[in-house]
Amino acid sequence: MNALRKIVVGSRRSNLAMTQTKWFIEQMKEAGAPFEFEIKEIMTKGDKNLHVKLSKVGGQGIFVKEIQDALFNKEIDFAVHSMKDMPAELPEGLMIGCIPPRVDARDALISTDHVKLMDLPAGSVVGTSSLRRSSQLLLMRPDLEVKWIRGTIEARIGKLREGEYDAIILAAAGMKRVGWDDDIVTEFFSAEDVIPSVGQGALGIECRSDDKELLDELAKVNDPKSWDEVTAERTFLSEMDGSDQVPIGGYAQLEGSNVKFTGFIASPDAKQVFKHTVVHADPVQAGKEVAKVLRAEGASEVIEKVLADLDNENK
């Protein structure tokens, strides 16, 4: 009997990343993939710079570049990413092999004494590492103070409990994956009201595009619904040249044979807000149509200004 092919899986080192990676390997095993699996932990640029604002660490791909290098060097065979960390464009030779079923795209508020967002006293400090979250937060509560926060889920919740923040905003999917009970959440924001990050709640399995044997096995665990929804969102991100450095979000839902997609772009102070929804049979066209509308309304200029201001800050 021939020995099984050993597949080396790349993962970041956090509890969330390792939990996601182990979960996906189990899905592969249950689908009958004829492989042995080994996990290789990889430290990324985004993991090394936890004391710097996410928008200043460096554009798209700060949580994936070292992992992509390992793919090119054949140190690993595929990587399990949080889809929201993936840049809009992938390097030639790499591709998303599959997207398993999405967990939860929503953002969640965790606050001291379970005080809801609209009931927080004026001047309360809310922690987030996302310009997208902070701009939408300021739209709802301009009287709150937004303070950046980085680190693992556990570290952020620890800072909240130590009194450094009155509330924090996290992705619901991450908390669910690492086993935090819903009881810790003060409130879940509707994904229609607080537009999530592109791909939030979904995993992206990245591999070399010439690895046919692996791609055939990944196809068995791909979720077509999640694939179409994330495709619409990532098309929008690509069309708008967006990244973690700008307040941009997108949320798609498959409704029958159509995709309903909403795109969001705002200035960091939330004084300029662009939001549009389309329903289309083609997820790619859904993303493109929203991008076209927002560009016509001036959203591209907001993105350019945010990036220019950031460049000046970093000089």
TrEMBL record:
Highest taxon of source: Bacteria
Description of how the protein assembles with itself and partners: Monomer.
UniProt-listed HAMAP family: Porphobil_deam (MF_00260)
Record keywords: Porphyrin biosynthesis, Transferase
Family affiliation: Belongs to the HMBS family.
Protein name in UniProt: Porphobilinogen deaminase
Named cofactor requirement(s): dipyrromethane
EC code: 2.5.1.61
Catalytic activities: 4 porphobilinogen + H2O = hydroxymethylbilane + 4 NH4(+)
GO molecular function, a single term: hydroxymethylbilane synthase activity
Domain (Porphobilinogen deaminase N-terminal): residue spans on this chain: 7-215
Pathway: Porphyrin-containing compound metabolism; protoporphyrin-IX biosynthesis; coproporphyrinogen-III from 5-aminolevulinate: step 2/4
Function: Tetrapolymerization of the monopyrrole PBG into the hydroxymethylbilane pre-uroporphyrinogen in several discrete steps.
NCBIfam families cross-referenced by the UniProt entry: hemC
Porphobilinogen deaminase C-terminal domain boundaries: 228-295
Organism: Sporosarcina pasteurii (Bacillus pasteurii)
A family per Pfam: Porphobil_deamC
Further remark: The porphobilinogen subunits are added to the dipyrromethane group.
GO biological process, one term: protoporphyrinogen IX biosynthetic process
Cofactor note: Binds 1 dipyrromethane group covalently.
Alphabetized InterPro entries for the sequence: HemC (IPR000860), Porphobilin_deaminase_N (IPR022417), Porphobilinogen_deaminase_C (IPR022418), Porphobilinogen_deaminase_C_sf (IPR036803)
GO terms under cellular component: cytoplasm
